[in-house]
Amino acid sequence: MHWVPGSDRLRAVCHCSAARDFEDPVALWDWLLAHPSGHRPAVPEPTPVPAAAGVS
Amino acid sequence: MTSIPRDQWYVAAYGREIGPALFSRTVCGESILFWRTASGRVTAVADRCVHRRFPLSELPTRLVDDQVVCGYHGFTYGADGRCVAVPGQTRVPRTARLSTYPVVEQDSFVWVWIGDPVLADGTTIPRAPWLTAPDYTTVSGMEPLAARFGLLVDNLLDLSHETYLHGGYIGTPEVASTPITTEVDEAAGIVYVSRRMADAACPPFYSRSTGLTGRITRWQDIEYAPPCLYKLHSRIAPVGCLPDPDGTDLDAFHVEVVYAITPETEHTTHDFWAVARDFALDDEEVSAFLAESNRTVVLQDVAALDVLERVVASEEDGYQELSINIDTGGLAARRILARLAGGRVHQVTS
Ligand code: FES
Ligand SMILES: [Fe+2]
Ligand SMILES: [Zn+2]
């Protein structure tokens, strides 16, 4: 499970590759933890997310 | 119900705190008695005599040849907790025994297992190898915190507070204004929060220790292994200086900031902190400066969290918060902690 807050929006990426953007981290968490409910395979998103460095 | 996860390893002390003398510390509400035996091993037993509950850490209790003689009526215990002598009779009741705690001494810390000893597995303890590595120099300390451990977890997982609470020490405007990446390894139960500032002002904490004067590339990579061990991998380098593709990184300064977050009670915490660096290894002045600065920063957090605890405790269950993007890591940590605390519910009256 993995997500990338970038700009003011938060992008959640589940391990199943479903992705969704949020404005509220609490809602983001609820969605991530609800897997698989409501998780559909990611559709390429038009919103650019600033390049986020990987975690070492 | 307690919010403190049980069946977990917690840091109880630095190894240097425990010698051949009785030493007591409360961890997760349990008062534990430690000493270092003649063989050099740290032993941990309950700090309450089985007879009338006298705290064995209190005078006139004595340690004689690795045996504890209770200062009240003289019950005598071995390092394994077994009672070997009672006053006035030769028969020692079979049940006369202090409960013992699994202990592992590692990376300068003394870890104790709080929970069912049968479940203790020392190989699962998270590591902080820099604290004893020969190519690093470490300064460390511990500050008592009159706040629940969850408030310190929140604090450490959101370093944007450095800009406000620690301005002039470790905070600069870029910390609060640089977006973070948060990642959770569900299987391993680890939270990663990463903030990488490409072009940032150098705070005094790093300019005075590294000697860098211009603007810097500053990476803060947090790795939190709930409940106890928090690591901040900090990389400081001149602007534009990145590690080589193969990972070698000779031109950067690396500081490993390690915290052990140990609940003392439901509402108090032992705030262990350590700063390990891979530069100026023998420079006593740098050591003294980093120790003094980090302690100051920790005490700024302690002052703020002590106040916050009083507020939160007075509002208790109904209290309202508002979370924003910077809180993603803290929220992730809270979820894991709640899961750990609920995994095996242990009723503790707080
Ligand atoms: S309380 Fe310890 S011997 Fe009586
Ligand atoms: Fe802080
Ligand atoms: Zn999913």
TrEMBL record, chain A:
<protein>
    <submittedName>
        <fullName>Uncharacterized protein</fullName>
    </submittedName>
</protein>
UniProtKB/TrEMBL annotation, chain B:
<keyword id="KW-0808">Transferase</keyword>
<dbReference type="Pfam" id="PF19112">
    <property type="entry name" value="VanA_C"/>
</dbReference>
<feature type="domain" description="Rieske">
    <location>
        <begin position="9"/>
        <end position="112"/>
    </location>
</feature>
<dbReference type="InterPro" id="IPR044043">
    <property type="entry name" value="VanA_C_cat"/>
</dbReference>
<keyword id="KW-0479">Metal-binding</keyword>
<dbReference type="GO" id="GO:0004497">
    <property type="term" value="F:monooxygenase activity"/>
</dbReference>
<keyword id="KW-0489">Methyltransferase</keyword>
<keyword id="KW-0411">Iron-sulfur</keyword>
<dbReference type="GO" id="GO:0046872">
    <property type="term" value="F:metal ion binding"/>
</dbReference>
<dbReference type="InterPro" id="IPR036922">
    <property type="entry name" value="Rieske_2Fe-2S_sf"/>
</dbReference>
<dbReference type="GO" id="GO:0016705">
    <property type="term" value="F:oxidoreductase activity, acting on paired donors, with incorporation or reduction of molecular oxygen"/>
</dbReference>
<protein>
    <submittedName>
        <fullName>Vanillate O-demethylase monooxygenase subunit</fullName>
    </submittedName>
</protein>
<dbReference type="Pfam" id="PF00355">
    <property type="entry name" value="Rieske"/>
</dbReference>
<keyword id="KW-0560">Oxidoreductase</keyword>
<dbReference type="InterPro" id="IPR050584">
    <property type="entry name" value="Cholesterol_7-desaturase"/>
</dbReference>
<dbReference type="GO" id="GO:0008168">
    <property type="term" value="F:methyltransferase activity"/>
</dbReference>
<keyword id="KW-0408">Iron</keyword>
<dbReference type="InterPro" id="IPR017941">
    <property type="entry name" value="Rieske_2Fe-2S"/>
</dbReference>
<dbReference type="GO" id="GO:0032259">
    <property type="term" value="P:methylation"/>
</dbReference>
<dbReference type="GO" id="GO:0051537">
    <property type="term" value="F:2 iron, 2 sulfur cluster binding"/>
</dbReference>
<keyword id="KW-0503">Monooxygenase</keyword>
<keyword id="KW-0001">2Fe-2S</keyword>
